[in-house]
C-alpha cells in the first residue's frame, strides 16, 4: 500500500507560452514514510502537493493512493496550508470541528467532539479553543491548522511549508509536536512536507526529494536519511549521515541555481 | 474606518495571551486617561466648530435678512419640539409624525432594495455568466438620478407615497447589489481550498464561508443604500408629497417659514446620522480583527 505519483505534468499558460511547473514527476511513497520536498521557489513543490490533495488537476499523469486514482479531495488526505487558512470568523474549536465533521460523516457528533478535543489538547490549544484566529499568535494558528488536519484522521498528511513563517523556537516546538502526533496514536501514516529548510527536511524525513528548477522542473534526486527514530534535534546535526545529506542537499541546490541562472527562460513547446 | 481601534484590540488580546510581552500590561491606565483627555478635547473642538458655524450663519443672516437668523431658527425648533406629535390634518402634523412617515417609507423602500439586492448580488457575484449579462445594465442605470425614476413609479402605482417607496427601492438597490456581488466574488482561494479539502457541503460552504466572508461587504452596501434612501425620500416628498419630512420642508417654504425649513434640515441630518451610526455599529460586529 502506497502513494504513487506517475509521470505528472503540469503547466500554466502565462506570458510567452507555457510555463512548466511539473515535468514528468515520478515517485512512490511507501505507507508510513515521511518525505520532504525541497527546492527553489517556483519548482512546483506546492503544485505537486495540491495535485496529491486533489485541489488541482495535472495535465497528464496520475496520483494513486492505495491503487485508487486521486481526482478530488478526500478524507484520506488532509493538508496544512502555508498561511494557516483558518476561517477568521470562527473560533479555533469551530474551525477544527467543522472540518472534522464534514470530512468524516461516518463519525457521530460525540466522536467528532472527542477527536477535536484530543487534537486541540495535543497541540496545547484547548485552553484557547474559544478564541478566534485574529486573537492568537502565528504559531498558535499553525497549531490549530495542524490539529484540524489530524482531526480528520487522514492516512496521508500534506504539509505546505507549514512552519516557514514562524520563529526558530516556535518552529522547533511545532516540529516536535508534529513528530509526536505522527508517531503517536493518530491514524496518519504517510507525510509529505514541502519545505525551504534543509535542517527541517532532514530532521523530519525518511527521504528528501530534491526538485529541480525550470526549465525542467522535476525530481532531481532523492536522498535517504538513514538516521533511526526517535531523533534528537540537538544531537542529530553531529551524525555523519546528517552531515552527508546536508552537504549533498546544499550542493544540489546551489548547483541547480548556478546551472539555470535565468530560470524563467520560456519553453515554447507545451509538452516535452 | 475603525481600523486603529481594531489594531488596539488585537494588541491587547496578544498581551493577555501567553505569548504577549508583559511590558504591555501597565499601559492601559495611562491610555485610558489619554482617551478621556481625547474625548474631552474632541467635545471642546466640536463645540468650538459649532460656535464658529453659528457665528458665520449670524453674519450671513445680517447680510441677507431674508435668511433665518440662528435665534429665530432656535425659537422655531423649540416650538416644533414642544408639540412634536400633534395631528391636525395633512397640513399641520407634528415634526416627529412627519419624520415617522418618512422613516416608514424609507424602511419599506430599503427593505425592498435589500430583498432584491442581496440575492441578486449573490447571483451576480457567484456567476460570471450573470455578471456579464447584467453588469452593463447596472453600470448604466446606477448613476441615474432618483428623481428621473419618479414619473415611472408614479404612473405604475398612481399613489405618490407608494411611488416614493418604489423610487427609493430602485435607487437604493445599486450599492447593496454591487457590494454584495463584490463580497461574494471575492472569497479568497485560501478559504475555498479549505472548504474543498475538508469537504464542506454546499450549504455549509454558504453558511460557514461565503456568508461570513461577504457579510462585511453586504453591510457596507446596506449602509450606503440606507444613506441614499434617506436622501431620496426628502426629494420625492418635496416633489409630490402630502406628508413626510420632505413635504414639511416644501410646505414650510411655501408658507415662507424658513426657520422651519432650517429646523427640518437639522432633523434630517440628525436622523441620517443616526441611521448611519446604527449601520456602522452593525458593521463592527462583523469585523474580524486580524487575518486568517
Structural overview:
The complex is a heterodimer of chains A (272) and B (292). With 272 residues, chain A is of the alpha/beta class. Chain A is built from 7 helices and 10 strands. Chain A is globular and about 50 Å long. The model of chain A is unreliable at 259-272 (pLDDT under 50). Chain B is mainly α and 292 residues long. Chain B folds into 2 domains: 3-67, no CATH class; 81-285, MetI-like (MetI-like fold, Orthogonal Bundle). Chain B has helices at 3-16, 28-63, 70-82, 95-126, 128-141, 146-157, 160-171, 173-185, 189-197, 202-240, 245-254, 258-285. In chain B, helix 4 runs antiparallel to helix 10 (202-240) and helix 6 (146-157) packs across helix 7. The longest helix of chain B is centred in the last third of the chain and has 39 residues, at 202-240. Mean pLDDT of chain B is 86; it is low at 1-27. Chains A and B meet through strand 6, helix 2 and helix 4 of A and helix 1, helix 9 and helix 10 of B.
Q: What is the count of β-strands of chain B?
A: 0
Using a beta-carbon cutoff below 8 angstroms, give the protein chain pair with the largest interface and the number of residues from each chain: A-B, 37 and 27 residues
Biggest β-sheet strands, sense, barrel of chain A: 6 strands, mixed
What is the alpha-carbon Rg of chain A in Å? 19 Å
β-sheet strand percentage of chain A: 15-25%
The 3D shape of chain B can be described as globular
Strand content of chain B: under 5%
- What oligomerization state is this entry in? heterodimer
The end-to-end distance of chain A, rounded to whole angstroms, is 31 Å
Which strand order do you get reading across the main beta sheet of chain A? Answer: 6-7-8-3-9-10
> First CA to last CA of chain B: what distance?
20 Å
Structural class determined from secondary elements of chain B: mainly alpha
Question: Low-confidence stretches of chain B at least 5 residues in length (pLDDT < 50)?
Answer: 1-27
Largest sheet of chain B: none
Helix content of chain A: 25-40%
SSE order of chain B, as H and E?
HHHHHHHHHHHH
**Tally of domains of chain B:** 2
Which fold name corresponds to the CATH topology of the largest domain in chain B? MetI-like fold
Amino acid at each position: 500500500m502506497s502513494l504513487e505519483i506517475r509521470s505528472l505534468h503540469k503547466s500554466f499558460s502565462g506570458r510567452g507560452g507555457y510555463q512548466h511547473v511539473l515535468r514528468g514527476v515520478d515517485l512512490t511513497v511507501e505507507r508510513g514514510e515521511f518525505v520532504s520536498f525541497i527546492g527553489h521557489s517556483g519548482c512546483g513543490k506546492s503544485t505537486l502537493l495540491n495535485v496529491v490533495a486533489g485541489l488541482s488537476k495535472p495535465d497528464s499523469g496520475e496520483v494513486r493512493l492505495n491503487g485508487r486514482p486521486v481526482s478530488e479531495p478526500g478524507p484520506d488526505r488532509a493538508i496544512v496550508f502555508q498561511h494557516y487558512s483558518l476561517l477568521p470568523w470562527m473560533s479555533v474549536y469551530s474551525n477544527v470541528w467543522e472540518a472534522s465533521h464534514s470530512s468524516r460523516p461516518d463519525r457521530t457528533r460525540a466522536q467528532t467532539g472527542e477527536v477535536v478535543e484530543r487534537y486541540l489538547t495535543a497541540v496545547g490549544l484547548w485552553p484557547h479553543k474559544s478564541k478566534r484566529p485574529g486573537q492568537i499568535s502565528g504559531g498558535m494558528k499553525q497549531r490549530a491548522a495542524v490539529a484540524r488536519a489530524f482531526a480528520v484522521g487522514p492516512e496521508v498528511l500534506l504539509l505546505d511549508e507549514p512552519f516557514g513563517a514562524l520563529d526558530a523556537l516556535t518552529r522547533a516546538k511545532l516540529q516536535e509536536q508534529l513528530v509526536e502526533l505522527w508517531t503517536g496514536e493518530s491514524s496518519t501514516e504517510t507525510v509529505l512536507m514541502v519545505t525551504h529548510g534543509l535542517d527541517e527536511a532532514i530532521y523530519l524525513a525518511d527521504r528528501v526529494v530534491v526538485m529541480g528548477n525550470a526549465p525542467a522542473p522535476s525530481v532531481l534526486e532523492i536522498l535517504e536519511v538513514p538516521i533511526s527514530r526517535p531523533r534528537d534535534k540537538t544531537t542529530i546535526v553531529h551524525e555523519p549521515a546528517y552531515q552527508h545529506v546536508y552537504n549533498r542537499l546544499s550542493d544540489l541546490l546551489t548547483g541547480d541555481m548556478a546551472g539555470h541562472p535565468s530560470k524563467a527562460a520560456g519553453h515554447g513547446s507545451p509538452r516535452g | 474606518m475603525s481600523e486603529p481601534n481594531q489594531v488596539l484590540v488585537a494588541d491587547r488580546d496578544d498581551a493577555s495571551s501567553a505569548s504577549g510581552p508583559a511590558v504591555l500590561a501597565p499601559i492601559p491606565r495611562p491610555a485610558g486617561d489619554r482617551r478621556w483627555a481625547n474625548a474631552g478635547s474632541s467635545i471642546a473642538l466640536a463645540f468650538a466648530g459649532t460656535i464658529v458655524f453659528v457665528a458665520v450663519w449670524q453674519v450671513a443672516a445680517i447680510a441677507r435678512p431674508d435668511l433665518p437668523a440662528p435665534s429665530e431658527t432656535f425659537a422655531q425648533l423649540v416650538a416644533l419640539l414642544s408639540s412634536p406629535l400633534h395631528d391636525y390634518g395633512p397640513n399641520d402634523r407634528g415634526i416627529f409624525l412627519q419624520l415617522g412617515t418618512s422613516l416608514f417609507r424609507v424602511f419599506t423602500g430599503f427593505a425592498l432594495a435589500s430583498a432584491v439586492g442581496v440575492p441578486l448580488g449573490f447571483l451576480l457575484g457567484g456567476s460570471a455568466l450573470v455578471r456579464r449579462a447584467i453588469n452593463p445594465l447596472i453600470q448604466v442605470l446606477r448613476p441615474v438620478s432618483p428623481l428621473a425614476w419618479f414619473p415611472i413609479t408614479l404612473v405604475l402605482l398612481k399613489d405618490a407615497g407608494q411611488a416614493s417607496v418604489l423610487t427609493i427601492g430602485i435607487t437604493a438597490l445599486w450599492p447593496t447589489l454591487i457590494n454584495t456581488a463584490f463580497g461574494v466574488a471575492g472569497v479568497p482561494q485560501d478559504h475555498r481550498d479549505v472548504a474543498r479539502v475538508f469537504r464542506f457541503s454546499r450549504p455549509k460552504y454558504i453558511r460557514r464561508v461565503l456568508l461570513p466572508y461577504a457579510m462585511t461587504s453586504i453591510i457596507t452596501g446596506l449602509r450606503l443604500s440606507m444613506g441614499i434612501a434617506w436622501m431620496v425620500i426628502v426629494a420625492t416628498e418635496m416633489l409630490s408629497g402630502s406628508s413626510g419630512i420632505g413635504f414639511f420642508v416644501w410646505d414650510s417654504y411655501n408658507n415662507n417659514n424658513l426657520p422651519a425649513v432650517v429646523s427640518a434640515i437639522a432633523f434630517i441630518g440628525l436622523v441620517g446620522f443616526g441611521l448611519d451610526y446604527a449601520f456602522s455599529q452593525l458593521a463592527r460586529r462583523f469585523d474580524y480583527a486580524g487575518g486568517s
